[in-house]
Specification:
With 144 residues, the chain is α+β, with helices and mostly antiparallel strands. 20% of the residues lie in helices and 39% in strands. Strands 4-3-2-1-7-6-5 form a seven-stranded antiparallel beta sheet, sandwiched between helices. Strand 1 and strand 2 form a beta hairpin. It starts with a strand and ends with a helix.
Length: 144
């Protein structure tokens, strides 16, 4: 179970204005070896960096707490760079804030709930501490 992972690729809408949005595919990833976090992975062309990504550039990855995603499905949640809230209809809004700008995305609730369910099957909610490896986490933090 140590190397168990979940990945769901889902459709989202990038909200450009009150009148305009565009579709994109987002990979939702969860790893048992990093049990408290989820990752949203976007194609490189959706980077907020001022410099355009070269062809074949690396994807854009946002990492935040799995619990934040779960909470934001039912009530507004988040402080800092990631905010998640329910929206009209069967949708959830995810706001990502960076020094380069803000991205607002709309997801189907069902897609996010299925992903969370799969992650909870991998590491049940409340059991994350059993999968933590402090030595690996420290080495990752220090870039080793």
């Amino acid at each position: 179970m140590r190397n168990a992972a979940v990945e769901h690729v889902v459709n989202a809408r990038l909200i450009l204005s009150s009148q305009c949005s565009t579709g994109l595919r987002v990979a939702l990833r969860y790893r048992a070896e990093d049990p408290l976090a989820v990752r949203m992975v976007f194609p490189a062309e959706y980077s907020l960096d001022e410099q355009p990504a070269p062809t074949g550039g690396s994807e854009v990855v946002w990492v935040f707490a799995r619990q934040l995603l779960a909470s934001g499905l039912d009530l507004p949640a988040g402080v800092g760079d990631v905010h998640i809230r329910p929206s009209r209809g069967p949708h959830t809004m995810v706001e990502l804030r960076a020094p380069e700008g803000v991205a607002l995305l709309r997801f189907e609730d069902g897609d996010l709930r299925r992903f969370l369910w799969a992650s909870w099957l991998t590491v049940p909610e409340g059991e994350e501490h059993r999968h933590l490896d402090p030595d690996r986490a420290l080495a990752e933090l220090l870039g080793r």
